[in-house]
Amino acid sequence: MKLFYHIGRYSLFVKKVFGRPEKHTVLVKQVIKEIDKLGIDSLGIVFIISIFMGAVITLQTAYNIDMAFIPKYTIGLAARDSMLLEFSSTIVGLILAGKVGSNIASEIGTMRVTEQIDALEIMGINSAAFLVLPKMLAFVFIIPFLVIISMGVGITGGFLAGALTGEVPAADYIYGIQFAFIPFYIAYSIIKSVVFAFIISTVSAYWGFYAQGGALEVGKASTTAVVTSSVQILLFNLLLTQLLLK
């Protein structure tokens, strides 16, 4: 029953988030600020994760299909499709659920327990829209760029790993990443990432918004937000794969 309680309260919370903002000029300024805070600041971790994911995928594929009748270019193809279809959207989404999700939940949770949200509501401000809508819009806007960067960096990481270890000739790898390319895979990954961004921002804000108590409860709310967001990402990853790739 507690599950249905949270689903209902979350739905009402999201409806409140999409309420009319106080001023559009203020909203735009907040969105730009959050793009820098949630998106640009995440570039480093996305870059590091992606280059190592690409390298590991390439080397593991090379070691496991070391057979004479399987051409080397299939390693590049496997690395490309792995990054495009799954790793650049889902794995990066899970990592950002930990970084961005905990940031949002702790920030809003701290405002709740220090009664800053109560002060906004006393002044007649829609606190959910004022605090959460800029974060959600900013993250939904910036995450496709992070995913595209992740794809490029991951494929490059695979190229470097294959070339430096001598497992995959550079010409074969480049031919592999061009072979039978399906442009829709990029669109599919971006669609998934936008859904994940919405989940991360709203679910994390929900747990922070309804945090009660003190610093300990804010920490618990932050942990719950990351776990819940991660589970939702895995669930919607399955659903979107069934819908979009069937």
The percentage helix is over 70%
Question: How many beta-strand segments?
Answer: 0
Low-confidence segments, ≥5 residues, pLDDT <50? none
| Strand and helix order | HHHHHHHHH
**Sheet with the most strands, sense and barrel status:** none
Give me the Rg, rounded. 21 Å
Q: Helix tally?
A: 9
Number of domains: 1
Structural class: mainly alpha
Determine the N-to-C terminus distance.
34 Å
Q: What is the 3D shape?
A: elongated
Question: Can you characterise this structure?
Answer:
The chain is mainly α. The chain has one domain. Helix content is about 85%, strand content about 0%. The protein has helices at about 1-15, 25-40, 45-65, 75-115, 115-120, 125-165, 170-180, 185-210, 215-245.
Name some characteristics of this structure.
single chain, mainly alpha, 84% helix
Give a brief outline of the structure:
With 246 residues, the chain is mainly alpha-helical. The protein has one domain. The chain has helices spanning 2-17, 24-39, 43-64, 73-113, 116-122, 127-165, 170-178, 184-209, 215-244.
Secondary structure elements and their pairing?
Blueprint lengths: L1 H16 L6 H16 L3 H22 L8 H41 L2 H7 L4 H39 L4 H9 L5 H26 L5 H30 L2
Helix pairs in contact: 1-6, 2-6, 3-4, 3-6, 4-6, 4-7, 4-8, 4-9, 6-7, 6-8, 8-9
